[in-house]
């Protein structure tokens, strides 16, 4: 089906993989998948205002010679603050509604997340620390998905669009690692929620859910793992080498979403796709 207008919403878009995904989905290469694409509304969400501005600058530099008409909206939101989350999401959706554009494709990338405390389970820092990690990585992400799903269902600009809701997952969601238990748990919860959501909407061919594991990336999170002495000794060597370029993983994700041939709710790893190509 020809794609003319794309609505793209990305959380955690101020750095790392989130910035790479924003750059790739707004870049010239996307026109190779969707030759008729003319307009992109990119809605970027993160806590860091300066980081979001840097992402917008990167997009503008990447698309300077492109024929695409791209609008980039920035929303500085602390997604871990559940007391204000609904109000802040209301503002995001209201701004989208104001432009009167009818969309053919809609993509949400739920990328925001944190590593949480490393170390043995019995040495978890505190109840409040665990709660904060779960609030940010699970409750916030799941509620953002719910609110986004309601928005695309109820708004005439999006309710007929082919929609993809992407959860940025991890290998640890399906293969838990020692000393990374909290990170494994929150990623598994997000995967499970998306899979159940996909089963509920099994009859709706317009909406698909994807759990995408981007592989071990060369990002700030990798540096955190390298520096933390609490990481299991058997895992440390895996992070002492150069890891995957976030731009390469973002490119793989963009192709996967554009082709739209994956099974809804499935967990797909970056390395699975490399073996197929």
UniProtKB/TrEMBL annotation:
<dbReference type="InterPro" id="IPR036291">
    <property type="entry name" value="NAD(P)-bd_dom_sf"/>
</dbReference>
<dbReference type="InterPro" id="IPR051721">
    <property type="entry name" value="Biopterin_syn/organic_redct"/>
</dbReference>
<dbReference type="GO" id="GO:0004757">
    <property type="term" value="F:sepiapterin reductase (NADP+) activity"/>
</dbReference>
<dbReference type="GO" id="GO:0006729">
    <property type="term" value="P:tetrahydrobiopterin biosynthetic process"/>
</dbReference>
<dbReference type="Pfam" id="PF00106">
    <property type="entry name" value="adh_short"/>
</dbReference>
<keyword id="KW-0560">Oxidoreductase</keyword>
<dbReference type="InterPro" id="IPR002347">
    <property type="entry name" value="SDR_fam"/>
</dbReference>
<keyword id="KW-0521">NADP</keyword>
<protein>
    <recommendedName>
        <fullName>Sepiapterin reductase</fullName>
    </recommendedName>
</protein>
<dbReference type="GO" id="GO:0005737">
    <property type="term" value="C:cytoplasm"/>
</dbReference>
<keyword id="KW-0963">Cytoplasm</keyword>
